[in-house]
Amino acid sequence: MYEKQLKAAAFAGLLFYVMSNPITYTIVDSVVTTILPLKVASNGKPTGAGLVLHSVVFAAVTFVLMLL
User: Fold this and answer.
1) pLDDT tens digits, 39-65
2) How far is CA 61 from CA 1, 8, 20, 34, 55, in A?
3) Entry pTM
């Protein structure tokens, strides 16, 4: 009955867990700083720019998941 919504919610929850993980911020910071002068994480904690970047990516991926 609500199979599509349940699937989207489960994937969004998993995606949130992965994207909000401090290790993810550290990995993304090491990649982004080679391309842009942007600090995504400091001492394993997200910066303001990191939160914005991860929020935009989370929203985009969640949107795509809802289309599936």
Assistant:
1) 999 988 899 999 999 999 999 998 888
2) 24, 11, 14, 23, 10
3) 0.81
